[in-house]
Amino acid sequence: MEQSTPKTQEDVRRAVAAAHTVVVKVGSSSLTQPSGHLDVDKLTALVGAIAQVHMLGGNIVLVSSGAIAAGFGPLGFSSRPTDVATQQAAASVGQGLLMAQYEAAFGRYGIRVGQLLITAEDTMQPRQYRNARRTMATMLELGVVPIVNENDALASNEIRFGDNDRLSALIANMVRADALVLLTDVDALYTAPPSEPGSHRVPFVPNVTALIDEIRVGGSGSGVGTGGMVTKLEAARMAVGLGHP
Fold it and tell me: Average of pLDDT values for 202-209?
């Protein structure tokens, strides 16, 4: 049964605070240093917050970018590569390094993690969708934190368009989440890129569909991510439409 959509900021805050199953999405820019390399301190702080919810009995699914950002440094690149083939190679190297850091960080709390590499397309094909939903449901029953990422090593379109935001909304529906949380290195939504004069903060969005026509948002400005606020608004619209705060 679809949840009723909260109408006020207080309703949303209460719904998120009371959520039992939460999908948390974190982007590359929130996990990296200014140089673009993986920032273990940021990752550790994120894991600490998730672990607290987990130990209180909550179910967490973490949708994490960062494979390419974790991989291009060890491959000898000073910045994120721009061609798709090299991005895929960096993702292949970086995904293992990223998971090793997550396993170590969660392990300090006695929490096991499991990796799922999927694409948005996998959530649209009935067989793959059922398999992924069953796997994640079983992992949560076993007390495992699923860590989901795009299969960046193969899915070139997702690398270009940064589908982890949209994917997180689909994952929220897949696990029937009580809330979706999108983490970013920008403190809020703005009416225009926050560096521009006249741009102002939007503290609460009662109707994301209507707002999309009223504001001007850009893509990623971090140099290590691919999504930006555009895909976050699209993810919010998808999640709210499916009944997830």
Answer: 83
Q: How far is CA 86 from the centre of its chain?
A: 23
8 Å CB contact between 39 and 32? yes
The stretches of 142-227 forming alpha helices (DSSP H) are: 156-161, 164-174, 208-212
What pLDDT, on the 0 to 100 scale, is given for residue 116? 94
Sign of CA dihedral 40, 57, 188, 233: positive
Are 33 and 39 a contacting pair, CB within 8 Å?
yes
Helix ranges (H only) for 23-125 are 40-55, 67-72, 84-107
Question: Are the C-beta atoms of residues 59 and 65 closer than 8 Å to each other?
Answer: no
Residue 114 C-alpha from the chain's centroid? 16
| Reported pTM | 0.86
Helix (H) or strand (E) holding 35: none
Residue with tokens 């299969």: 151
Q: How many CB atoms lie within 10 A of CB 195?
A: 9
Are 49 and 212 in contact by the 8 Å Cβ rule? The answer is: no
Distances from the Cα of 134 to the Cαs of 102, 125, 129, 149, 174, in angstroms? 23, 14, 9, 17, 9
Mean pLDDT of 89-114: 95
Query: Tokens for 228?
Result: 């930006």
Element (H, E) at 216: none
Structure tokens at 204: 């609460």
SS3 at position 110: coil
Domain map (residue ranges) of the chain: 9-241
Cα Rg of the chain, angstroms:
17
Fold (topology level) of 9-241:
Carbamate kinase (3.40.1160)
